[in-house]
């Protein structure tokens, strides 16, 4: 009986030792720490586009003239004070822009009485609207291969779309900007009361411009 008991004790001890041994052998190897996927590279910062070259009019240069028909005869005048700023790259005209600001009271028709009449409230009303301005946010190619500014003209407080034909030539100082267009004075309220009639003063006004521009630093 004692021999059987000793045998059972020995068997139990052996089983325990074997279990411990197997448990140690089957312990899975430690897993390597999880690695995070490499972070996506940040997109490269966009390179700033080169600024479109800027050109400005030197004060006192250039011409901006207008012509209209009065009593069957053509009359001409000019604006003595105006400022022009052009951004232009021949390889990318769509990125260009044009801004022209005119001091309306600087009009001159070579006749003092007519100057005073044009400045009155029924016509240009220079006291209330001292400046006219043309602003174009882009330049476009015309069907004939030339250029035109796509913008708006504000005159006598009225703003209307106006596509302005342009000729741009290289010059020793920078560029020369020129061209001509025709607008209707009544579209801008130039002519109130009896002056709305086109019997004596025509509706169409021809504008011509020629401006030397120097590259701004």
Shape by Cα distribution: elongated
> Beta-strand level of the residues, as a percent range?
35-45%
Going across the biggest sheet, name each strand in turn. Answer: 1-4-5-7-8-9-10-11
- Oligomer designation: single chain
What are the segments in which pLDDT stays under 50 over at least 5 consecutive residues?
Answer: 1-29, 39-49
Mean pLDDT: 83
The number of helical runs is: 2
Largest β sheet strand count, sense and barrel closure:
8 strands, antiparallel, barrel
Name the structural class: alpha+beta
Helix content: 10-25%
Question: How many individual β-strands?
Answer: 11
The run of helices and strands is HEEEEEEHEEEEE
Q: What is the strand and helix layout of this fold?
A:
Layout: H1 2-26, E1 54-57, E2 63-70, E3 73-79, E4 82-87, E5 97-103, E6 107-108, H2 112-119, E7 131-141, E8 147-155, E9 158-170, E10 174-184, E11 204-215
Antiparallel strand pairs: 1-4, 1-11, 2-3, 2-11, 3-6, 4-5, 5-7, 7-8, 8-9, 9-10, 10-11
Structure description:
- The structure is a single chain.
- By secondary structure, the protein is of the alpha+beta class.
- The chain contains 2 helices and 11 strands, in the order αββββββαβββββ.
- An 8-stranded antiparallel beta barrel has the order 1-4-5-7-8-9-10-11.
- The chain is elongated.
